[in-house]
Amino acid sequence: MNKVIGIDIGGTMIKGGIVEEKIIKTRIIQPLAKKQPMESLDSVIKKLLRAGYEQIKCIGIATAGRVDSDDGVVLYASPNIPNWSSLQLSKILRKRYDIPCYVINDAKAAALAEAKIRNVSNLVLLTIGTGLGGGIIVNGEILQGFKWEAGEIGHTILHPNGRQCNCGKKGCAEQYISMKVLHRYAKERDRHRLIERFHQNDLQIVSAVERLVKDLVILTDKLFLTIDPEFVVIGGGFCELGSNVLEIIRKHLEPYASKSLYSPSQVDLSTLGNDAGIIGAAMYAESRISGG
């Protein structure tokens, strides 16, 4: 891989890096200006272009929402990123920076990176962060779908007539499985404090995690029986809870797995952590410019 800029736009942060041979050489992380997300994106791109001088081959953007990757258009962005829907992002950035630019959904980018790193052809990645995203790799290819909606796992119904979702439906998985939900269950606003208390086996935090995991394993079981992947990988901020949370997930998944052919050991935490979106975006851009 030549030098490629990879950028991951989430609900609260924008992360970028210069990626070379699947390794992030230069890294920038800053808050996403919600009222002016394009200003945040421009700021990160300019800093990375300066750092990479004239050696940057292309730019890959991973962003939350439904993305037409062929044309580089953000068809629909969740309310987590206002003023981001119906945006011809690739066209705007190509014109502005005179460099090839490709756009992909953030969870799909992360799934691509995880599958490549693990050298597997069938994988589902769940990004548990501000919301709940999904990326599906089947036979080595990103599953995009007819309307670019494949992998919108967070908006599948988990509990009919359940909690109201920003998308307009009730009972979406995202309303039960996200870091936002975990903070609410735990009654702890600070991310670092929540993680610290979990590692200290604070009963209030552990109980909150188990409550969320009970819904997570229902969703995970559906994914194994629908997609039959080699791995279901958990990514996003939830990974920061570490190996202890993986043990909890596998424990709660065992009763479901025992009635099927998959194993709880096929659930794993992301090996790339919060870098998966950046690396996946760069990989996707590299594959597009190479004609893959």
UniProtKB/TrEMBL annotation:
PROSITE patterns, per the entry: ROK
Top-level division of the source organism's lineage: Bacteria
Coiled-coil region list: none
Family in the record: Belongs to the ROK (NagC/XylR) family.
Protein name per Swiss-Prot or TrEMBL: ROK family protein
